[in-house]
């Protein structure tokens, strides 16, 4: 058995605000490679990269808005990419820096994800769900959740 197959921790990717990869661990590389292979087998290479890139772009936009309003609090957003059985949960953290956007960072945690049906929510709605929290603790009374269909 390969080390990547045994790994149970999250994949970690650290990006600059210009989306330059500053760090990527083996688990993240394995998850993204697995997802890419699945997409290529159905002829959708661009469909894999686009959701990850879009999620990072969304975080950069929030970083810009927070920096403009002098809000230095960390925040996170969730999104899922891929199709069963190779769905990946992306948990993206925006880390604003008082020195400006160029010094701010994005940390992405990638984990395999099995979608469980939720009562009253179709599978398509749950795949497109986005959750944002203005605090690292989602139980914070200041946390907000937004869902886009």
In sequence order, what are the helices and strands, one letter per element?
HEEHHEEEHE
Give the strand line-up of the largest sheet.
2-1-5-4-3-6
At the first level of CATH, the class is Alpha Beta
- According to DSSP, the number of beta strands is 6
Give the overall shape: globular
Please give the largest β-sheet: 6 strands, antiparallel
**Percent in strands:** 15-25%
Q: Superfamily at the CATH H level?
A: PAS domain
How many helices?
4
Walk me through what this model shows.
33% of the residues lie in helices and 24% in strands. The longest helix is centred in the middle third of the chain and has 24 residues, at 45-68. It has a six-stranded antiparallel β-sheet with strand order 2-1-5-4-3-6, with helices on one face. The protein is built from four helices and six strands; from the N terminus they run H-E-E-H-H-E-E-E-H-E. Strand 3 (75-81) and strand 4 form a beta hairpin. It has a single domain (9-133), classed as 2-Layer Sandwich (Beta-Lactamase). It is an alpha+beta fold and 149 residues long. It has helices at 3-6, 26-41, 45-68, 123-127, and strands at 11-16, 21-24, 75-81, 88-95, 105-112, 131-133. The model is unreliable at 1-5, 44-48 and 122-149 (pLDDT under 50).
What are the salient characteristics of this protein?
alpha+beta; Beta-Lactamase; 149 residues
